[in-house]
Design brief:
Layout lengths: L3 H21 L7 H17 L30 H7 L1
Helix pairs in contact: 1-2
Length: 86
């Protein structure tokens, strides 16, 4: 059986691979539900072993690099209107 450190490292590699496939290459290999299960398993293991959380963990990142080719779109609401909607 793998140690928590080994299991966390394997999950991080797998999640990072799926992030790249999904966000950068637009060719996902697993469903969103399967991805969410992997991510939750990593989150749970890191919660059980906070000493193993690192800054480069997928649980510590916000956003991903996007697939090239998407154009920027100006939002029709001002910041003030958007704040009221939230």
């Amino acid at each position: 059986m793998a140690s928590p450190k080994q299991e966390i490292a394997a999950l991080r590699r797998e999640i990072s691979r799926h992030d790249r496939l999904y966000y950068a290459e637009a060719r996902p290999e697993i469903s969103d539900i399967e991805y969410d299960r992997l991510f939750q398993k990593l989150r749970d293991l890191e919660a059980e072993h906070p000493e193993l959380v690192t800054r480069d963990s997928p649980t510590q990142r916000v956003g991903e690099a996007l697939t090239a080719g998407f154009a920027s779109v100006r939002h029709p609401f001002s910041d003030a209107v958007a704040a009221e909607l939230v």
